[in-house]
Description:
Strand 1 and strand 2 (112-116) form a beta hairpin. Helices cover 51% and strands 8% of the residues. The protein contains 6 helices and 2 strands; from the N terminus they run H-H-H-H-H-H-E-E.
Amino acid sequence: xxxxxxxxxxxxxxxxxxxxxxxxxxxxxxxxxxxxxxxxxxxxxxxxxxxxxxxxxxxxxxxxxxxxxxxxxxxxxxxxxxxxxxxxxxxxxxxxxxxxxxxxxxxxxxxxxxxxxxxx
Length: 120
């Protein structure tokens, strides 16, 4: 905020950058953001939670995994594509199921099973 106050006191952005030992780009962008939003705080990053493309298919994914706990993520991705026309990477499906409370437990035979950690 000191950089923005320095500029507001009548100095240039480049002078503020030199005075506070920051880049000119930072000073210019900070002053612009402060002028536009009223705050030097950065904008929120990333997608808001609960708005991913898999949210609409949550019940399908959960029912599929509960019906066949040993299903692999590539198999689940293929089922999602086949039944709903949605392309999803296996890693994305795994992260989504983890957020839904599922865990993956490996078994000694090389397979594995997804189980529910807690009811949602």
